[in-house]
Design brief:
It contains 24 helices and 17 strands. By secondary structure, it is α/β, with parallel strands linked by helices. The protein folds into 4 domains: 194 residues, P-loop containing nucleotide triphosphate hydrolases (Rossmann fold), CATH 3.40.50.300; 177 residues, P-loop containing nucleotide triphosphate hydrolases (Rossmann fold, 3-Layer(aba) Sandwich), CATH 3.40.50; 101 residues, Arc Repressor Mutant, subunit A, CATH 1.10.10; 75 residues, Orthogonal Bundle (DNA polymerase, domain 1), CATH 1.10.150. It has a 7-stranded parallel beta sheet, sandwiched between helices. A 6-stranded parallel beta sheet has the order 8-13-12-9-11-10, with helices on both faces. The longest helix is centred in the C-terminal third of the chain and has 23 residues.
Length: 594
């Protein structure tokens, strides 16, 4: 039954990794915890069981944008779905309640805050709800990067809905501590656990350091004028500056941050979803639930606050399985901005210590010389990560430099400073700076004072950061982190180990898969899709993903049977759009292009 739903409504013959295991477990009555990277198909793991089960499935989801995209997509696929959130008027809300009670829908999406409404909870008690799915489940954990107190209300559903529904929780990123919190706070009963791994095989990661950010941005975005992309910045001011800069260059860019009126945010998001805007410049307020499949690149103009946030935001690229690029533009002052934001936050001191530690993990990512994808995978506890062969580190073919002597001098200096000071002061001592703080502690009398005087202070700071990222030193989790040596440094100091370093990697364009079909036909199919999307007032990707259009260009179907073999085209969508797309392909071939 599940496979029939997958084919008819979603247009796929086979499940992706982990999907069938989770769906089978849920349909057998088991609670579940699914940890799957963005683009791995988490939503299918609860949408297919919902379509199969009697009654209505409740989906708890944190962002209105996510609800709208998924509701649009499911209704396009022939599965009646709706949402309840703050955008509805009282009249609309009453009508939705009546329709839900009348059994009109198979899925209902709700924000977690809605579960604090007594009226809504009373409605749930009267319904047949066999299944509750919790999306972005990491929000329930204080160890998670996006903790939301409202998620704590979810477990009360188990006391209201009778008989007890199956509970399944899903997230793209979760460390072991976060997973334990999810199971405990959602009261999952001996859950089936599926973690499909964190690697995204179609994404290429790059870190750019020491560059003119605006010049890089202009060059990159103009070079990808046909592609959709997202640019994340840390502050509203930088969002405004970047957006204005791109618009002046003639680029169709929009902005999104919490300081804008609701109407403008909604309008810009819609324009981006409908491909009217090619680039969205945004703070992290944008994108957590954006289901847009054809984002080809994500650029972080500033360093994010932690690896979890970065991987989720970068993961907006390439959701359709096509190649995507994820580029982080690093500057040391951005770290100070994030520290300021932590200090200005309302978290208690324990939570701030966690946030500082998470930020250090992000700084290490920016300086590591190992495979960037592997660093991320290892961060989440997967020790089996292989080098991706695509990222800035893996594709950097320049010669490595032996920096063992410099490393020994740095480690010796840190030890002589009693492992009580941070990177900046250590670099000043090694540089031999005539600095008041250096003299205050008498560090000008150390044997390591001026040991790296031939190097600029900025170069010394960079080298120290690389040595931290590669595990030779650690930084304490505090606002003013202190350098400490690890066991790995001891082998270097004793002359038993060597240390090598590369210069900053250069981003290269990700190449598409070898056979992408006819580009002229692809553009015609995109225009046809846009015509349908405009007519039905839905985002183009809810009709067919770019990957589906690409496969149409390769397969060149001439009949219904041939078209139904293409991934992403099921019977429901063929009946709606199939004839028009077959005609477009046929006309293109007849014109001598096939």
């Amino acid at each position: 039954m599940a496979r029939a739903v997958l084919k008819t409504h979603f247009g796929y013959d086979t499940f992706k990794k982990g999907q069938e295991t989770l769906i089978s477990g849920i349909l057998e009555g088991r609670d579940a915890l699914g940890v799957m990277p963005t683009g791995a198909g988490k939503s299918v793991c609860y949408q297919v069981p919902a379509a199969v089960m009697d009654g209505v499935t409740l989906v708890v989801s944190p962002l209105i944008s996510l609800m709208k995209d998924q509701v649009d997509t499911l209704n396009q696929s022939g599965i009646p779905t709706t949402f309840i959130n703050s955008t509805l008027t009282v009249q609309e809300l009453n009508a939705r309640f009546r329709d839900i009670a009348g059994g009109r829908y198979k899925l209902v999406y709700v924000a977690p805050e809605r579960l604090e409404s007594d009226r809504f909870v009373r409605l749930l008690a009267e319904l047949n709800i066999p299944f509750v799915a919790v999306d972005e489940a990491h929000c329930v954990s204080q160890w998670g990067h996006d903790f939301r107190p409202s998620y704590m209300a979810i477990s009360r559903l188990l006391d209201v809905i009778k008989p007890r529904p199956i509970i399944a929780a899903f997230t793209a990123t979760a460390t072991d501590k976060v997973k334990a919190d999810i199971v405990r706070h959602l009261r999952l009963n001996d859950p089936l656990r599926v973690t499909t791994g964190y690697a995204r095989d179609n994404l290429s990661f790059f870190v750019m350091k020491g560059i003119d950010k605006k010049a890089y941005l202009a060059d990159y975005v103009r070079g990808r004028s046909g592609d959709c992309g997202i640019i994340y910045a840390s502050t509203r001011r930088e969002v405004e500056e970047c957006c204005n800069y791109l618009v002046k260059l003639g680029i169709r860019a929009g902005r999104y941050h919490a300081g804008l009126p609701d109407e403008e945010r909604v309008r810009n998001q819609e324009l981006f979803l409908y491909d009217e805007l090619k680039v969205m410049v945004a703070t992290n307020a944008f994108g957590m639930g954006i289901d847009k499949s054809n984002v080809r690149y994500v650029i972080h103009y500033n360093i994010p606050k932690n690896v979890e946030s970065y991987y989720q935001e970068a993961g907006r690229a390439g959701r359709d399985g096509e190649p995507g690029e994820c580029i982080l533009l690093y500057a040391p002052q951005d770290v100070m901005t994030q520290k300021f934001l932590i200090e200005q936050g309302e978290s208690d001191e324990d939570r701030k210590a966690i946030e500082y530690g998470n930020l250090h993990g992000m700084v290490e990512y920016c300086h590591t010389t190992e495979c960037l994808q592997r660093y991320i995978v290892r961060y989440f506890g997967d020790s089996d990560g292989q080098s991706c062969g695509r990222c800035g580190s893996c594709t950097d073919d320049r010669e490595v430099e032996d920096v063992t002597l410099e490393a020994q001098k740095i480690f010796s200096c840190v030890a002589r400073m009693k492992q009580r000071f941070g990177i900046t002061l250590t670099a000043k001592v090694l540089r031999g700076a005539n600095d008041a703080k250096v003299r205050q502690f008498g560090f000008e009398r150390l044997p390591t004072y001026g040991a790296l005087s031939a190097r600029k202070e900025k170069e010394i700071v960079n080298l120290i950061n690389v040595l931290v990222a590669d595990g030779y030193m650690r930084l304490t989790d505090s606002q003013y982190p202190v350098l400490t040596l690890t066991n790995e440094a001891r082998g270097v100091l004793e002359g038993k180990e060597q240390v090598f370093q590369r210069v900053t990697p250069v981003a290269r364009s990700a190449s598409r898969s070898a056979d992408t079909g006819d580009e002229a036909l692809f553009e015609k199919l995109r225009q046809l899709r846009k015509t349908f999307a405009d007519r039905e007032r839905v985002p183009p990707f809810t009709i067919f993903h770019d990957a589906t259009l690409r496969e149409l260009c390769i397969v060149m179907p001439a009949t219904e049977e041939e078209m139904l073999t293409v991934k992403g085209i099921g019977k429901v969508k063929y009946d709606k759009y199939g004839h028009a797309f077959l005609s477009c392909i046929s006309e293109h071939s007849a014109a001598g292009n096939g």
